[in-house]
Amino acid sequence: EVQLVESGGGLVQPGGSLKLSCAASGFTFSGSAMHWVRQASGKGLEWVGRIRSKANSYATAYAASVKGRFTISRDDSKNTAYLQMNSLKTEDTAVYYCTRPDTAMGTAFDIWGQGTMVTVSS
Amino acid sequence: EIVLTQSPGTLSLSPGERATLSCRASQSVSSSYLAWYQQKPGQAPRLLIYGASSRATGIPDRFSGSGSGTDFTLTISRLEPEDFAVYYCQQGYTFGQGTKLEIK
Prior knowledge:
The complex is a heterodimer of chains A (122) and B (104).
Chain A: E1 3-7, E2 10-12, E3 18-25, E4 34-39, E5 46-51, E6 60-62, E7 70-75, E8 80-85, E9 94-101, E10 109-112, E11 116-120
Parallel strand pairs in A: 2-11
Antiparallel strand pairs in A: 1-3, 3-8, 4-5, 4-9, 5-6, 7-8, 9-10, 9-11
Chain B: E1 4-7, E2 10-13, E3 19-29, E4 34-39, E5 46-50, E6 54-55, E7 63-76, E8 86-91, E9 94-95, E10 99-103
């Protein structure tokens, strides 16, 4: 079964750090780019960042709102992507989804995890 | 930076009716990279349409996409009760703000 499972969410104080994980199964993880998308309560979808495959030099890109604070990495041996979040702000409170673009579908995200909730509050 | 504007913000219709949702880009975009998603409360988004007009696997044929350049449309031919949800268009790293389709 094709699946993405996020973990690592929780409550953190402003200025704190948190690391999310995204475990993949059922597809060739090492050949896929992986993206993170977040959604604040009652709001729309916001792209956070992505990491490309080894063949594309593990290139990363980030939204302006998180650049310099968030870092995406991956461990292909564990079929897992990570989102390291530092200097967290209250406005980072959201459900965080990992997702995979299918290159045969342009950049459409065909696989999504269930999401993990991050709450930044004192 | 491309901005995607969806309209209307909320659409109130009855089951069996036809729904037409719009997504307008701030500049011309490639149809190959325009996608539509459905999201229900408490669930992750689900891919409906990619490449502006191709249905994703398992998506009923009552869902169709069209458009090019800056104007794209998602049409649901006959609404089923399970179709009432929020719909997002996406191009590259940008999502529209969503259209909520609610039961009238």
